[in-house]
Amino acid sequence: MAALRRSAEADGRSFTRTSLFCFVHDTAPQHNGACHSCSLSSMNDLSAEPAGLPAQRPPLRLGACAGLWIVTSALAALAGCASPVPPDGGLPQTPVPSAWSTPASEGMPATPLAQWWQRFNDPQLTHLVALALQANTSVRSAQAALQQARAQADVQAAGLLPSVGASASAQRSRASNSTGNSFQAGFDASWEPDVFGRLRSGLNASEADARAAEASLADVQVSLAAETAVTYVELRGLQQRLAIARSNLASQQETLQITQWRLQAGLTTSLVAEQARAAAEQTAAQIPALESSLAQSRHSLAVLTGQAPLALDSLLADTLAVPQPAQELALEIPAETLRQRPDVRAAEQRIAAALARVSQADAARYPSFSISGNLGLRALTLGALGNGASVASALLASVSMPVFDGGAARAQVRVQEAALAQARVAYEASVLTALKDVEDALSALQGDRERLARLQAAADAAGNAALLAQQRYRSGLIDFQSVLETQRTLLSTQDSVATTVASVSADHVRLYKALGGGWR
Description:
Layout: H1 2-10, E1 22-26, H2 69-78, H3 123-135, H4 137-158, E2 163-175, E3 178-191, H5 198-264, H6 270-304, H7 334-340, H8 342-363, E4 368-379, E5 390-400, H9 408-475, H10 480-514
Antiparallel strand pairs: 1-5, 2-3, 3-4, 4-5
C-alpha cells in the first residue's frame, strides 16, 4: 500500500482511495486508460488534479476492479482475528521414574558420555570407532538427509520473500506490404503476503524436520559407535576363546600321548586310548568354528568402518585382551537421560513439525493474497531500448479464497491432526523404549558381573582339579575317566569365563548406548 502511494505521489497526485486488486500505469504514447491486467475499462477518476501541473497530462485512472477494495479490506482486517488456533501441541505426559532401579554409583558427578569408548583404554577401539563415525555409509546417508532437510527449510524460507525475474523478447511481424519490429525488456516481481501464517507454518515444519534429521544423525552415530564397540569386544572375546581351545587341545593331546604309551606297555586298555582320542578330536572340532566367527567379526568391523571385508585382517591379527571399561559410572537421573537420547529428541521435533503442519493446513482454508508487478521498456528497434523507449509498468494485487471444495480443506486438517496424534504416540513409545533400554542394560550388567565372579572361581577350581587328576593318572592312582571329566570341566569353565568377560564389556557398551552417549 505504501509502495502504491509513493508511486502515485511521484507522479504528482494524491489518492483518497486505492484498489489493491488492479493498478496499471502505462506511459507509452496514446494510452487510453484501459486496465491492461484485467481488460476492463477505466472508471471514475479518484484523483484530484493539483494546481500547477501541465494540463495536457492525462489523469491517472484506476481499473473497474477497484470496487473489490471493500472486500479485500474486509478480508485483510479479518486476518487479525481469524488466525488459526492450533490444537494442544505439548509433549505427552509420560511418567518418568525419579531414579534408576540399580544405580551404578551415587554421590558422584555424572560420567561424560560423548566419547565413552575412550574409557576402555584401547587405542584400536578408539581408532575404529572414529573411523566408523567418519566413513560409515549409514552416517553419510544421514548427513545427506540432514542437508536435504536444511535445504528444504531454505526453500520454505524463500517463499516468504518477494521473487524478482528479468525477461526480454523480440518480435517481427509482417502484414500486407508492411513489416514491423518490437523489442521489450523488463523486470517482473511477485510476492505473497503471509496474512494467515500458512507460509510461516510451512517454514516452521521444515525447520522442525531439519532438527529431527539432525537428531536422527546423532542417533545413527550413537548406534554405530555402540555396534562397532560390541563387534570389537566380540572379536577380542573370540580370540581369547580360540586361545583357550588351543591350549586345552594341547593338554589333551599330551594326555593322549601318555595314554598310548601306557597302552603299548600294557598298563591300560584300548577303550581308554579311544576315549582320550575322542576328547581331543572334540576340542579340535571347536577351533574351525571359532576361527570362522573370528573372521566374520573382522569382516563386520571393516564394513562398519566403510572398508572392504578384508581390509582390517592385518590390523586385527594379533590376539589382545578384551577391553575393560572403568568401573566407576555415575548415571544421570532418568529425565536427564531422556534429554540426552537423540531418538527422543527426534521424536520431539517430529511433534513440532506435525503441529506446524496442522496450522498450515488450517491456514489454507482462509484467503490467500498475492501482489505482482512488472516494469519494462518497449521500442521498435533494439537500439531504442536504451534511449527513447516507452516505459510500461503494471501492478496487480489479487485475493483468492476457497468457496466450495467438498470439504477437502477440512479433511486435510484432520489428516494433519491424525499425523500429530501419531507423532505424539511415537514420542511416548520412544520415551518408554529409552527407559526400558537403560533398565535392561543395568540388569544385564549386574547379572553378568555376578556370573563372572562365580565362573572365575569355578575356573580356578577346575584348573586345580585337572592338574591333580593328570598327576594322579600318571602315577596310576586314578582311572582315565576322572581325567576326562576334569578336562571337559576345565575347557567349559574357561570358555564360559572368556565369553562372560566379553559380555560384561558389551553390557557396558549397551548401557552407554541406552544412556544416549556417543554424540555431542
